Amino acid sequence: MGRPYGLLRAGFPFFKTVGMRRHTNFPVDVALGKENRLYILCRNGDASMVRKYTVDEDNLGEIGGVATWGVAIITDNEENLYISDEAKHCIASFNADGESLGTWGEHGDGDGQLNAPAGIAFDAEENIYVADALNHRVQKFTKDGTFISKWGSHGDGEGEFDMPWGITVDELGDVYVVDWRNDRVQKFNSEGEFIFAFGKSGCEDGELNRPTDVAVDEHGDIYVADCGNDRVQLFNSESRYVEKFLGDATLSETAIDYMMTNAGPNRMRDMANLEPQKLFRRPISVTINGDGLLFVADNCSYRVQVYKKHAIPLTEQEFGPPRRSPTLHQE
Amino acid sequence: MSNADVALTAHLMRRAGFGTTLTELEEYVKKGYENVVEDLVDIERCPPIDEDVVDRYFGASEGGYRTTWMYRMLNSPRPLEEKMALFWHHVFATGVGKNQHILASSMQIDMLRGVGLSNMREILLALSKDPAMIFWLDNNENRKGEPNENYGRELLELFSMGVGNYSEDDIKDCSRAFTGWTFTQPPPLYPQGYYPAHFAFIEEEHDNGEKTFLGNTGNLNGDDIIDIIVKQPACAEFISRHLYNFFVADEPQVPSWSVTPPQDPDAIDTLSNAFLDSDGDIRHILRTLFNSDFFKEARFKKVKSPTELVTGILKLVGTYQKPELGMAKYPGATTLMGQELLNPPTVEGWHTGREWIDGGTLTERINFSVGELSDASKPGIGQIISRLKSNGSALSPDEFVDRCLELVGPLDVGETTRESLSRFAASQGDLNIGADDAAEENNARVVRMLQLIVSSREYQFA
Q: Is residue A26 less than 8 Å (CB to CB) from chain B?
């Protein structure tokens, strides 16, 4: 199925909250499994673990000790987990039960070596792209760690990076890289040829402040975790700003269960202002599934906020011709 | 560059900062002492630390604040900013053990970093509005008609003037002036973690009646009390003595100050005058202090606090100059030596000077220092070895001791220590440092010599 000619954006309401303190401490990334399973990578100090939930918040347990400074988690077609560790300069893999499948990567700046790997993403052939942060480049590997190619160097020109972080591959094979310290996102084809970049430093709509992650959905919409501005921004496939998400969290089911047995916190919560409790605090990653569920790792609030996209694809007949200029005339 | 310049600059950086790497020390010496003092005091002359990088690697973690702070101490281009945050943390001791709210405690340190080099009025005002302090000394329960005098008392006794400079009635009316100074209720820790509390003034809980404080009468609010305090010579003397104790030489513990005169009254006078002449401008007072003869002559007159010892050792070995795994263990090291950052034992703060040292803490200090100096591949040790090589192919035992003492400090040692070091050096004859075929053995000898130096009595002094 190709991308739609246009979209009727009916809405993007808040859907639910997943997790709470102690279950999902400092979540940094979310990976998707089959049957609505979620793998939430959590990093607290020098230890990282994976909390396994379903979208309905059935607790499927945890996998401890998956990394020291875990940054990103992705799943392959067999639902094995791949996790980047920026302290140990490696990619670790596990099956869904937490059994280790091995680790690859070594510290360095040669081909195939890594220096603080951050974002990771599979392409359709299950090759892995790695945002090799302190080498300021992207490297492509087979999923067992064999080096394939690389591009990028330190700088702020096209195809250059300053400590890249998040990375994703869309269904067409194009690669999107969050160029963290340049406050922008760059798009490349699968060979690393530059296509476009968007974003500049700031806090206005479409501007970015140390963005950390990027995701692309089946419509080509681009989601950017604008972490330093405590928001997620949505851009269309041509990088035009569409809207932003600031956080609308409710209490998760797990949190409600907890609060129902703790009188003191209930009173404190009642005395406090509820408004800030809805908002993102350091939204660090974005993940979107095929049902239009957008998962945002709300890092400093120990939870994942989930939104649900409601958009209807439009054909050429249903979507007026492109306009170069705005108009006041209602057709 | 003369040895005297190197020694003086190293002294300055041990006190106004957290020590230096060899490379940093050489750069500071090249700038000249007075210029370095200006760089330290006038912090805008140097860029701030890369906050985004600190946040990226240490940003979110419940135990991480102390780690982050120690990383800042090691790497901030503005070391005095961090040293003053530590100074005020000593003076305005607030313990996370009571509030159990690490965010509030860490935000207090951020506040101290932000105002620490401003002026006394601004500092006391920010302190009085700080939620961690308000909770620590119960000012959130200080209301019109039912005053809680805890904060009012300590503000005068421990934070600004010291015992003997006010009456019980002054305490009562000072406390009344701070009624209604409280903070907003933050959401609870569960289920979404720590949220900040913010200062709040509750008009209906504030006592608007007439008060008399240190001879001033009127409807005084907390701001008015602070205005009066900072004009008192007693405040100038008290803060000057704290600065002297922290930056120059160990004084007796604070509770005895009302009965034990300062060891150098002229120095306290100089600093007090700088305070009064500048309306409590901390930069002006520190500039006066660092450029004074009494400071320059006060080398090794202070026992290093655990934080100074740990950061000084890390500077010496040159590690953690960028975010790396392992930094998180160092706050635990200072705790074992008697200083848990963010958690001083009482409102009096840590007892300093010789009270840092007992059998247990000394063992921790030495074990820590020796452990950190056990690896010749660490960059700072590599630099020392390389400097030793630059002296020529062979060093006599005495030259070996002298050069190592120079490169570690320069450190002055007494006769007993000197004899021990010389005995060790002589036990294996000349050090043929340039001999490539004995590099491993020679490196091990250097490491052992450095370990002996940092285990010495003299190394415990800054």
A: yes
